Amino acid sequence: MPRHPKGTTAGFKVKPRPRPKDLYGENEDLPVNHDWSHGKWTKDGDQWKPDPNGKQIIMSPIREQKDGEGTCAYHATSVCIEAAYNIKYNSDLPIQLSVQELLDCVKFKVENYKSSTRLKVILDWVVDNYLSLESDYKHTTGNLGSDCLGKGKGADWKAVTIMKKDFTDEEKEEVREKEVLRLVHEQPIIVVFDATNTFVEWSGKEIYRGVTIDDEEGASAITPKEDHEDLQKHAMLLVGYGTTEDGKTNYWIVRNSWGLSFGEGGYGKVARASSLPGGETLITKIFTVEAAKVKEKVPSMAQEQEDD
After folding, report:
1. Which residues lie closer than 8 Å to 15 by C-beta, 6 or more apart?
2. 16, 98, 93: which is closest to 50 by C-alpha?
3. The sheet that has 131-132: what strands, in order across it?
4. How far is CA 138 from CA 148, 179, 266, in A?
5. What backbone phi and psi angles, to 5 degrees, belong to 236?
6. Between 11 and 47, the higher pLDDT residue
7. 272 and which of 153, 227, 250, 265 could share a cystine (Cβ 3.0–4.6 Å)?
8. DSSP 3-state assignment of 153?
């Protein structure tokens, strides 16, 4: 069989696919695709088993909000801190932190219930009180309002804290996706989206593009936010980015808290601004953290299961 020069197919030169426009300039050194969810968990009975291919796992297993409406911020916070810890300390297997402790201990006034301000309050609580491992403060109801058992830093089971809690430009009116690309390349970050009625119905099986309508020329456009029904906020973890094989759509990879049936094993894709009409981002807020140990030895999920 004849061999063809590199960059050709059957003697025809293959034109390299251009980089997405948001990966030029200050982002030229970034890869076109990046994904922190590369290592996958499998379940054997009641035990979670690490990736059979030996890939390093940064993320803990997918959880489900159960009946806890409005608890997405708690889930996103706990897994963001887990990921930051696992990357910083180069853990072979990840730790799993308690989301139930946050649900029980971080209280809100009614007027703040659906605001992204909730994330700031949750992160402040972790700075002031530290956070426990899942094995020491287990996920039970998934609901708000239970008695808090973990207030204060002094408890022996406290494991992890955070050193900083906000992205410096988080208060800007607009989120710059070029900056977000660099941030998520370093580690997963918390992102907040406008959760319209179509977002709530999103199965995660296709790339989410926001609420769109067809204009007179047949092209799709994002509808004004004031036209959206049931406009709320939804927090998820941003774990990576990529481009479809045909090169037509640039997307974010997000980890949701709607269980394994959502998307591909709990993960979905959201279109980046560079692939949306008008170039308007669907992200409304971003938060990033730096994790730190509270005690010298923090057991991984695998070590905790062995102890059980």
Report:
1. none
2. 93
3. 131-132, 158-164, 290-293
4. 12, 36, 21
5. -140, 175
6. 47
7. 250
8. coil
**pTM of this prediction?**
0.82
- 3.90.70.10, 3.30.450.40, 3.40.190.10, 3.40.640.10: which CATH number matches 30-307? 3.90.70.10
193 near 284, Cβ under 8 Å? yes
Per residue in 188-224, is it b (16+ CB within 10 Å) or e — as a string? bbbbbbbbbebbeebebeebbbbbeeeeeeeeebbee
For the chain, which residues make up each domain, given as ranges?
30-307
Tell me which residue has tokens 């002031």: 128
**What is the rounded CA–CA span in Å between residue 81 and residue 279?**
30
Q: Which residue type occupies 300?
A: S
Mean per-residue pLDDT, 128-134: 89
Helix axes 72-88, 117-129, angle to 10 degrees: 50
How do beta strands 47-49 and 212-214 pair? Answer: unpaired
CA 268 to centroid of chain Cα atoms: 10
DSSP code at position 66:
T
- Say which range, 104-108, 112-116, 153-157, has the weakest mean pLDDT: 112-116
54: alpha, beta or left? (left if phi > 0; alpha if psi -120 to 50):
left
Q: How confident is the model at residue 254 (pLDDT cuts 50, 70, 90)?
A: very high
- pLDDT average, residue stretch 257-280: 90
Which pLDDT tens digit goes with each residue over 41-54? Answer: 666 666 666 666 66
The continuous run of DSSP H or E covering 124 comes out as: helix 117-129
pLDDT digits over 85-112, tens only?
A: 989 887 667 888 999 899 888 877 545 5
Query: What does the block give as tokens for 11?
Result: 């003697």
When the pLDDT of each residue in the chain is averaged and rounded to a whole number, the result is: 77
CA distance 258 to 281: 23
Q: Which two tokens stand for residue 136?
A: 């020491």
Which two structure tokens, joined as six digits, stand for 142? 């998934």
